[in-house]
């Protein structure tokens, strides 16, 4: 390396560092110019909310986050991760709360029962439903399709290039609980499960099917913002009874209803932060969540703005959360 | 991007500039019996398929795990326990992680994210732009300064400042660490053959193993956030630095080294005074490749909450908001163009400096004064942006991010609504006509027959060494227990590669023959090479449905830029005298292309196919997100559900084995023909 180059690199480094330091030490004039966006923040401190990758969850997270920021003065941080990673984060103490948990018995056992680093923080008020859905036009044109016993009659219509001569049953994001392969086998349906691989793929498929009036049956769930755009109809499977899903390969019944709950890291629960109470009291309906989710996904609002809009219109509910 | 950047972000074992073509006779098969042998293999294969279809295919149902996968699950659990109990993981690693996260948090506070009560970062946009512009001036020249300033202004205009700067912070730190490790490693590899032999396969695996497979365990060790994001980026971005450094030091001519030795310099002096300065230009190319590879990881790191524009892309995808995804994606493209051109300019200057002793046309003294003066200006601007709101906060009225987003959404809707019937017809034709039969041929025959086909094809094309590589990789695939799915993925990869090459040859020939075509097509190629595939997944899904064909489309879109650039390079390499000669005997344009240019550019075409194939394989996982099933889907599932981790990891191993196998067959086949 020639001497000039070395000197030049030295200059660059000195210049850049000096710039940062100089600016860092300068006065706080700009603070008085624009400040006041958050009030205090001393009492609450940092509040880390995990954001799992579906819009309904985003609605939960940003509404709670907005309330925590504006009413409790917390410094809210959103951590965008999948469910399992979020549990790992609560275990490590880098995530404070998960606001919508769909069961996950394996993780409950690992982190709540065994490691005792995570605890249940009560229900969100949302009821999770999983099942097989068809686009509304199909339910209107062939109402008997909503009963699983008639599915074989229509199997040919559901054929696609992906389903190897059988009817196609489209599954979505692998994060979600699915018994569909066992169901197809045990209910003796002439269908093949095709893995779309992501929620995005699943929603796009349903959207196109409704628009072009094409045949489609697939795995879906509520609450979900997309249902306010296209109200998919649920196909009834043999009724769920306690324990009918005990052996995975023998399952021949519908999915159970999930009472969705919140989780909180033990470390955070013992921290005395006022946000702990907020998380425990947070409770709303499927309609509430769908509305905020629709603001985000349907109307393309920023999550913060969507949360503000809902919070401003629902002060009574908020007051019950922060009492 | 410049020709040197063709294999940006590539899982490319071949680095360095493509072969230059001198006049060569039209290449003939040395062994005329090869086509005959291949025909016999194909006949046996089809016969076997007809007779033994569906038998011993080793297919494994979705939720079923084998012993190897369960063992991987156990390993992952054990390693998870260490994180809690083992001193090294808990304390040593913990402190490193905290340190990295603190550095990132400090840089964010300074440059991108308003800390606490302040409405703006410590240095506002004006200051950041001035400082980065000055750095570009110092290392690369004033043209780069203009590029940097324009890019950063566009970040403001598109309303992606915070995440755009975060992206630069994470990329910058990753590149810094990559160079700090990769440069010495490359030097070491260049000096000792054994070291090189040991690290080369490791670097291969680092580049071809899909990062989804190890995302969850890494997040366990490095926590959620910047430190983990940097480690993930490092794994992918480090190999180009090490490889190209090794290549560069080897490239210093033997006579120069001999001459220096005869003057009695020590090994250290030789390295510092001779080899490094002479290899400097190529090493900077390595840093350029490293930078682009780092940017390619932006969306993946967002999955473990790595800061940057990748997060916006992922979030927009959840809401199916193509417009927002596009705006964030173009931020990544802008960053890539800026960093690529700046590092390339820096490398050119380094070359001039090596030749003349100074990279600048100015006298050293004048240049130093100029640098000092502009530094003062930059610092003053930085200070102003610390003090005054006008220099720190970009006015909302001067942003067009949301307008661009809604235009894109409208345009996408129009395209989808107008063409979706035609495109789904195309999907069906390709799926029923080509994909289904081919996949059946690959995966629905007994595994031993397919293995025999692969081995004999490898032996016929590439000889003994290709046979050995195929045997090893085949055994690994068999060992993962995912033979059936691997063969399905292999068939899809081959279809995607064929389509890629069709596009690449058409565009590449046009570019190679006409400078104007090159001028028009090259920016398109640059864009597709750097824009995250997530951006165009939603329209692709709407047009082609959740299907294997959509995965193939995504693969082609990602792979065709590299392949096209290499084809164009090959075509351009055909010597002018040969072309003159053919023209003088009155051949038509079509004849010139098919009889002279394409055959003579064969080495370039082979390299392009090789790269195209590896690029296609590198996004098999993305295919899993849009309905491709098979290996890609298992890797995604393994990342999402801990009881499927083992299966996902096994699938990732199989993908890597397929990549290495195909690469070796092609390389040895090409070497045999020369």
From TrEMBL, chain A:
Residues 1-23 form the signal peptide. One of its GO terms (molecular function) is transmembrane transporter activity. Gene3D superfamilies: Glycine betaine-binding periplasmic protein, domain 2, Periplasmic binding protein-like II. It comes from the Bacteria. It holds the Pfam family OpuAC. Keywords: Lipoprotein, Signal. One of its GO terms (cellular component) is ATP-binding cassette (ABC) transporter complex. Residues 48-312 form the ABC-type glycine betaine transport system substrate-binding domain. This is Putative glycine betaine-binding lipoprotein. The lineage of its organism: Bacteria, Bacillati, Actinomycetota, Actinomycetes, Micrococcales.
UniProtKB/TrEMBL annotation, chain B:
Keywords: Cell membrane, Membrane, Transmembrane, Transmembrane helix, Transport. InterPro entries: MetI-like, MetI-like_sf. It is a multi-pass membrane protein. The chain crosses the membrane at residues 34-52, 128-155, 167-188, 219-238, 282-304, 316-339, 369-391, 441-459, 466-484, 490-512, 533-560, 613-636, 648-666. GO terms for cellular component: ATP-binding cassette (ABC) transporter complex. Residues 1-20 have a biased composition (Low complexity). It is found in: Cell membrane; Membrane. PROSITE patterns: ABC_TM1. CDD domains: TM_PBP2. The keyword Transport applies. The keyword Methyltransferase does not apply. GO terms for biological process: choline transport; glycine betaine transport. One of its GO terms (molecular function) is carnitine transmembrane transporter activity. Residues 164-345, 486-666 form the ABC transmembrane type-1 domain. Residues 1-22 are annotated as: Disordered. Its main location: membrane. Belongs to the binding-protein-dependent transport system permease family. This is Putative glycine betaine ABC transport system integral membrane protein.
